[in-house]
């Protein structure tokens, strides 16, 4: 089954008014789908976005090293003062990334993404 990441990204952005961005990054750190919600001021741009993606991928790789003991990573949430970053591994090459305003309903967002990526579950 082919998954339409752009379609899922748009659904995620529309899921909650606190969601700022939703998209998919590949293992090279390139955004391959999704984007910023319209009329939302960007906090990061250009090279800073690339760094953010790089750090999310790096964190995923670190937790992969512990998977034999604690199981595979299902999601990661990092709260900052101005934004919250959520990442969900899709496979070994792709990572679904979401940024929200602080205090968004993270579990609702994560559950929606998991259901959209794996509709048979």
Architecture overview:
The chain is α+β, with helices and mostly antiparallel strands. The protein has one domain (5-117): 2-Layer Sandwich (Beta-Lactamase). Helix content is 36%, strand content 26%. The chain has 4 helices and 5 strands, in the order αββααβββα. It has helices spanning 5-13, 47-64, 67-70, 106-117, and strands spanning 19-26, 31-36, 76-79, 84-89, 94-100. A 5-stranded antiparallel β-sheet has the order 2-1-5-4-3, with helices on both faces. It is globular.
Task: Compile the SSE list and pairings.
Blueprint (H helix, E strand, L loop, with lengths): L4 H9 L5 E8 L4 E6 L10 H18 L2 H4 L5 E4 L4 E6 L4 E7 L5 H12 L4
Antiparallel strand pairs: 1-2, 1-5, 3-4, 4-5
How would you concisely characterize the structure shown here?
25% of the residues are buried. This protein is 36% helix and 26% strand. The protein contains four helices and five strands, in the order H-E-E-H-H-E-E-E-H.
